[in-house]
Every structure is written in C-alpha cells, then in structure tokens.
Amino acid sequence: MDTAKGLPIERNRLLNASFLLLCLCLLDAVFTDYGLRFGHIQEANLLVSFMYEKSIVLYYTVKLGLPLLLLYIVTVGKTGVFLRIGLTSALFLYVTVICLHIFWLIAVAI
Predict the structure, then answer these.
(1) Longest dimension (CA), the chain
(2) Nearest-CA neighbor of 30 among 110, 109, 97, 83?
(3) Is residue 80 pLDDT above 70, yes or no?
(4) Mean confidence (pLDDT) of the chain
(5) Under DSSP, is residue 32 helix (H, G, I), strand (E, B) or coil?
(6) I need a surface site. Which of 11, 29, 37, 98 has the fewest CB within 10 A?
(7) What is the gyration radius of the CA atoms in the chain, in angstroms?
(8) Angstrom distance (rounded) from CA 47 to CA 61
(9) What is the Cα–Cα distance from 2 to 40, expressed in whole angstroms?
(10) Residue in 100, 77, 74 with CA at minimum distance from that of residue 87
C-alpha cells in the first residue's frame, strides 16, 4: 500500500520514465525512417512496414502517438503494477532497439 509521502515520488518516476520512452520512440522512428529511406535496413515489423508504405505521417503519428497516450495515462490515471511492469518492459525493449540502430549506423558509416 502506497503512503501519502511516497505517491508523488512514484508518479514523478513514472512521468520521467514515460518521457524517456517518448524520446526513445522518437529516436527509433527517425533512425528507422533514415534507414528505410536510404535503403540501409528493411523493416521487420509488418504492421510498421505497412504504415510506412502508406504514409510517413501515419507512421510518425502511430510511432509517437502510442507513447504520448501512455504519458497521458500516467498523468491522469492510477499507477498500478501492470503499468509499471509494462513501462519498464517497453523501456528495455526500446533501449535494445536503439542499440541495434546505433550498430547499423556505425556499420553503414564504415
């Protein structure tokens, strides 16, 4: 059970984590766009590939809209264990994806 003193700190951590996730999603979207545009990579996610081929605006809207929705949920909603686990998992996944992007950017530069 959360105490009254611990609650604002927990919310601030979730807000910071959500903002970090938004930044990582933006980096992922820009790096992926760059790689696809210049033929350095191929999109493995079929849904993202479909969105990218349909419209760049749709691609960026979805890629940035989902973390913005999560940030909104963290701001106005209750912070439960599922939200914390989901946010932590998403951060881990996106850090891994950004590392892969950095790897292929270095590979392309060499």
Answers:
(1) 54
(2) 97
(3) yes
(4) 88
(5) helix
(6) 37
(7) 16
(8) 14
(9) 48
(10) 74
Given a contact cutoff of 8 angstroms between Cβ atoms, the answer to whether 84 and 42 are in contact is no
The residue count for the chain: 110
Tokens in use for 28? 């992922």
Helix (H/G/I), strand (E/B), else coil: 78:
coil
- 74: its two tokens: 């963290």
Rounded to whole angstroms, the Cα distance separating 65 from 37 reads 21
Q: Which two tokens stand for residue 59?
A: 């691609």
Q: Which residues contact 1 (CB under 8 A, 6 or more apart)?
A: none
pLDDT tens-digit map of 33-54: 999 999 988 998 999 999 999 9
Q: What is the pLDDT of residue 2?
A: 52
pLDDT band at 10 (very low <50, low <70, confident <90, very high): confident
Give the start-to-end residue ranges of the domains of the chain. Answer: 6-109
**Residues 75, 15 contacting (CB under 8 angstroms):** yes
Q: Which amino acid is at 34?
A: Y
